[in-house]
């Protein structure tokens, strides 16, 4: 019952804030329609008495009233439904937007890697479909309660014992509440398998994975694993549905017995001559109505309990987003760097793990310099980069920007001063203009600025070869757009990076993985030149991660990571001279190239 109350309160409050005019109109129309139902019974009973007494004028008048009430019941309910559907669509859109904002409302990407939070997100997104119908269910439940109240008063005027009939609906409500709890627990327990099934479906139907799936003949494996996940989900949910149905049936049997008792009372009174035939027709009609009203109300209780669980999970999601420092009280990013970035005793451990990825990292990244991060897989390079970008919160230690702790700087302000291209860069299947413009949204409609970024990323040919130029849709997920190669997608990612104005930190994390060695070297030469120009204006630090040492050797500073710690720093010549870890890796790769 608590979940139902929470769902009704949430949906009505949210609908009032979304569009109060539509809510008032829908409520008024549905109320008129619901009140027409019990009045149909009253008119039918009076019409029966008029016909028996051969009062033709009254009978014709009551027949017209009865027809009007029936038309009102159908039409008002129909138009009320149309109005509430429009409002429900608006609500779902707003809630989806809110869930999206909450998903990205934390300063740390680690929250999206937390299994408990991912499970919560899965349950919320699954439940949003139930919330979509919850507003109409709330109004219908209110209408059903009003119907039952009016029907009870009318029946009580015939025989006071009939006032007990609506009270017989209380046990079915209790059984329905228990039944819904069984279903909610089963849905929560199935969240992991549902997420797995979604992932496998995406793998099996995506063009990005189709090559390897077909070449490795993995179709049957994916289908089998997808089927297994759904079989486990289905088995759990069917078991819960069977137990839920049994509980609901117990409540319905109880009400059926009470319903039969009410009819017995009325028929006995009619047989004794104490009740008119019209009243018998009235009570039978109302008893049938109240039976369907209670059955409908129980169904609405179930729907609203499911929606109430989703409302609780949305509240949990809201509570899971840390309270950020208010924008007005947070420090601003500096206009330019004079000293650079300093990393002090930095440590980071992913949620659910006990082994730190970074531990006790101390590092100085001078303003205006290019810094290369090297090391084996799992050394912590990408994690360090994300900490510098402010995408993770350190487990210990700090990142300082010209002596100011990064955690005290406004997240949004710092992100606007960071230009990045990651190895797993986003392939945004939007227009070419939007694909580049997202790097600096105010420039999305500035063709000259977009052209500059495309030129610097050597991607101008993508515009020239596209029939619609900058407005060409890319990809085929939702439109018949242009397909791009991996290198072409990467060029657009580079254009997004260079579009960002006045960065203080430029990050290239394995950005040229789709390029050959010569192209990568040329790319980093261009970026080094760009970095030096930017450094003269803002003192920006350029950090890049690469496994190709022909590129790394040109950096002003090379940092070698191993096991989450900094083991060597220096220029290429200095690190080769000390003949340590860097020299060994460089020599191995040089021999391979020879």
TrEMBL record:
GO CC aspect terms: plasma membrane
Membrane-topology annotation of the record: Multi-pass membrane protein
Domain ABC transmembrane type-1: 24-306
SMART domains named among the record's database cross-references: AAA (SM00382)
Keyword check for Transmembrane: yes
Main subcellular localisation: membrane
Name this protein carries in UniProt: ABC transporter ATP-binding protein
Organism: Oerskovia douganii
Taxonomic placement: Bacteria, Bacillati, Actinomycetota, Actinomycetes, Micrococcales
């Amino acid at each position: 019952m608590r979940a139902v109350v929470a769902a009704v309160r949430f949906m009505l409050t949210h609908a009032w804030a979304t569009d109060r005019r539509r809510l008032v109109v829908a409520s008024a129309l549905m109320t008129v329609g619901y009140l027409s139902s019990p009045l149909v019974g009253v008119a039918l009973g009076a019409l029966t008495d008029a016909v028996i007494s051969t009062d033709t004028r009254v009978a014709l008048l009551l027949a017209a009233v009865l027809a009007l009430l029936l038309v009102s019941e159908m039409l008002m309910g129909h138009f009320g439904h149309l109005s509430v559907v429009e409002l429900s669509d608006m609500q779902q859109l707003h809630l989806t937007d809110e869930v999206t904002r909450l998903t990205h409302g934390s300063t740390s990407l680690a929250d999206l890697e937390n299994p408990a939070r991912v499970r919560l997100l899965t349950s919320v997104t699954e439940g949003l479909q139930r919330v979509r119908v919850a507003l109409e269910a709330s109004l219908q439940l209110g209408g059903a309660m009003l119907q039952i109240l009016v029907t009870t008063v009318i029946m009580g005027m015939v025989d006071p014992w009939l006032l007990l009939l609506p009270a017989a609906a209380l046990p079915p409500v209790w059984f329905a509440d228990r039944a819904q709890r069984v279903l909610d627990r089963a849905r929560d327990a199935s969240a992991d398998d549902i997420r797995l099934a979604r992932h496998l479906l995406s793998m099996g139907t995506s063009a990005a994975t189709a090559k390897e799936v077909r070449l490795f003949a993995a179709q049957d494996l994916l289908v089998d694993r997808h089927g297994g996940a759904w079989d486990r989900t289905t088995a759990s949910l069917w078991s819960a549905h069977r137990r839920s149905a049994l509980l609901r049936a117990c409540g319905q049997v109880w009400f059926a017995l009470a319903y039969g008792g009410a009819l017995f009372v009325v028929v006995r009174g009619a047989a004794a001559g104490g009740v008119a035939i019209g009243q018998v027709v009235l009570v039978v009609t109302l008893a049938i109505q109240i039976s369907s009203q209670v059955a409908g109300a129980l169904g609405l209780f179930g729907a609203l309990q499911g929606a109430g669980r989703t409302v609780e999970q949305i509240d949990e999601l809201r509570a899971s987003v840390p309270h950020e420092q208010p924008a007005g009280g947070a420090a601003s990013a500096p206009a330019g760097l004079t000293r650079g970035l300093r990393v002090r005793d930095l440590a980071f451990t992913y949620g659910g793990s006990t082994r730190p990825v970074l531990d006790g990292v101390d590092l100085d990244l001078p303003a205006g310099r290019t810094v290369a991060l090297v090391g084996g897989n799992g050394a912590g390079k990408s994690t360090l980069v994300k900490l510098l970008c402010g995408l993770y919160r350190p487990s210990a230690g700090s990142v300082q920007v010209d002596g100011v702790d990064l955690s005290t700087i406004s997240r949004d302000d710092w992100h606007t001063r960071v230009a990045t291209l990651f190895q797993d860069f986003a392939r945004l299947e939007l227009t070419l203009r939007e694909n580049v413009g997202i790097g600096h949204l105010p420039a999305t409609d500035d063709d000259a600025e977009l052209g500059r970024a495309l030129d610097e990323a050597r991607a101008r040919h993508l515009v020239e070869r596209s029939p619609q130029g900058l407005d060409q849709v890319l990809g085929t997920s939702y439109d018949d757009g242009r397909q791009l190669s991996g290198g072409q997608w990467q060029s657009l990612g580079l254009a997004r990076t260079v579009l960002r104005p006045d960065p203080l930190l430029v990050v290239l994390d394995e950005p040229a993985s789709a390029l050959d060695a010569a192209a990568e070297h040329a790319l980093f030469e261009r970026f080094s030149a760009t970095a030096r120009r930017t450094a003269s204006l803002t003192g920006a630090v350029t950090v890049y991660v690469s496994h190709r040492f022909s590129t790394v050797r040109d950096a002003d500073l090379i940092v070698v990571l191993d096991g989450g710690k900094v083991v060597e720093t220096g220029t290429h010549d200095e690190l080769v001279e000390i003949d340590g870890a860097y020299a060994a890796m460089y020599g191995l790769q040089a021999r391979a190239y020879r």
